[in-house]
Q: What sequence folds into this?
């Protein structure tokens, strides 16, 4: 943490647990070692969401391709993929050697996610607005083929400006896809500034509820709260959305909540002392 940072910023950095900090440090280590730029801010806002999902909810074997009934997770906000890669490495699906190659020519891990089921990456995403439609299609396919997997999809609040999301959401309700969970990373920031200045969506919980989703609304860096929302009994006929109130760049000290580290080259991990 910078010595001149306000006390409230120091407190925000301190509230991250050891494991959450370790994932963030790993992201910075990879970028610093390769001396390449990456989407730091979008990745840091979703670390706790991913840890809860992969620790306790997503049924994913060590060889995903061998289990057709595995759960599916889709990172629709593809610019947060460094967090996904680091968590999948933590779970043993991506090797340290592969992750260390991020940003190099021929690396299997792209700047945005590219489908690789062996690594636990179910869909190519990053063209915003496509992940939720893909997830709805997967959940509906599971229903039709009488398979019993659950589909989780993580979208950004800025990404929800894309109309394809809402068309997909209406379809999910029409078909009663209770095997679908949408998580919203509501960090209030887009690349071009605050989300409310780009296209305001102030009544997001009410909007999802009116469509017909079961709605949970939680602090997005509180793993206990996320866990409880995902454990809440599912409706037999409705899809679910968990709106996670997050901070873009969570853990970046004075840069939290800003777009300064949306996409950035990391000269060294010491550039973010709060995570050391």
A:
């Amino acid at each position: 943490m910078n010595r001149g940072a306000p006390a409230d910023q120091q407190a925000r950095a301190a509230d991250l647990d050891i494991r959450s900090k370790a994932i963030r440090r790993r992201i910075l280590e990879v970028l610093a070692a390769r001396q390449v730029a990456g989407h730091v801010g979008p990745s840091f806002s979703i670390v706790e969401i991913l840890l809860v999902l992969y620790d306790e909810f997503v049924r994913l074997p060590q060889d995903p391709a061998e289990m057709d009934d595995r759960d599916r997770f889709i990172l629709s906000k593809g610019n947060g993929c460094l967090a996904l890669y680091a968590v999948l490495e933590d779970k043993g699906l991506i090797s340290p050697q592969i992750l260390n190659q991020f940003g190099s020519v021929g690396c299997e891990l792209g700047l945005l996610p590219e489908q690789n089921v062996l690594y636990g990456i179910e869909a190519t995403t990053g063209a915003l607005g496509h992940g939720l439609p893909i997830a709805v299609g997967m959940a509906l396919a599971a229903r039709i083929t009488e398979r019993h997997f659950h589909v989780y999809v993580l979208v950004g609040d800025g990404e929800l400006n894309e109309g394809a999301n809402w068309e997909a959401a209406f379809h999910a309700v029409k078909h009663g896809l209770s095997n679908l969970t949408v998580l919203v990373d509501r960090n209030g920031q887009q690349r071009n500034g605050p989300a409310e200045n780009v296209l305001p969506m102030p009544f997001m919980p009410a909007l999802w509820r009116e469509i017909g989703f079961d709605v949970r609304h939680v602090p997005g860096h509180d793993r206990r709260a996320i866990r409880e929302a995902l454990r809440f009994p599912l409706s037999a006929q409705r899809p679910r959305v968990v709106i996670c109130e997050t901070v873009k760049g969570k853990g970046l000290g004075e840069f939290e909540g800003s777009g300064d580290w949306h996409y950035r080259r990391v000269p060294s991990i010491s550039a973010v002392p709060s995570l050391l």
User: Anything to note?
Assistant: The chain has one domain: 9-255.
